[in-house]
Amino acid sequence: MKDLFIDNSCVVKNFANPADEDYKTLIKWLLDYEEDSLNNAHLVVSNKLLNEYNRSSGGGSSMQNITTIVAILQRQGRLNKIENKDIKAFIKKHFTNKIKKKLQSNAADHPHIAIILLSERKMALTEDIGLWNDLLNFPGYEIEVHNRPEELPYR
Questions:
Q1: 127 neighbors 9 (Cβ within 8 angstroms)
Q2: pLDDT at 62
Q3: How far, CA to CA in Å, does 69 sit from each of 27, 54, 74, 140?
Q4: pLDDT band at 19, cuts 50/70/90?
């Protein structure tokens, strides 16, 4: 599954109209769909992330609006939605006190770390430096994380 986590920090700045060319390419990749293809994009989400998207989208309905993209992906079965119970179980098991002390992201982002680590490809796009550092340094996992889509091998 070609799944990707896109942090709301990227959505707020870069999914608005007009998006730069690299974000237009990312959005096109998300929206392109071929029946029965293994190359279709999937978006890694949780209820918490979907709520963040909804709060920041401004209710727009353009094809670049994240809520429109999510709705399309949901209809096509292309959301890799990580359930709250799985997030909580992962955090309980892997977020030891030693690890929590080293985390630089705020506690509200810790579920995002869990959904990325539970995703298929463990690939993330974020402009949040604390989250970025936590993903790169989380013990036992290799995560591909960048702040620009052209730096990320998502296709």
A1: yes
A2: 78
A3: 8, 12, 9, 32
A4: confident
Question: DSSP state, 122?
Answer: -
Residue 154 contacts residue 123 (beta carbons within 8 Å): yes
Q: Return the structure tokens found at 24.
A: 């237009």
**Cβ(114)–Cβ(141) below 8 Å:** no
| 122 within 8 A of 141, measured Cβ to Cβ | yes
Helix (H) or strand (E) holding 29: helix 21-31
Q: Which two tokens stand for residue 135?
A: 């993903």
What residues contact 74, with CB distance under 8 A and at least 6 apart?
A: none
Are 69 and 43 within 8 A, CB to CB? Answer: yes
Distance CA 69, CA 24 (A): 13
Q: What is the pLDDT of residue 18?
A: 65
- The model's pLDDT over 123-134, given as tens digits with 9 standing for 90+, comes to 999 999 999 999
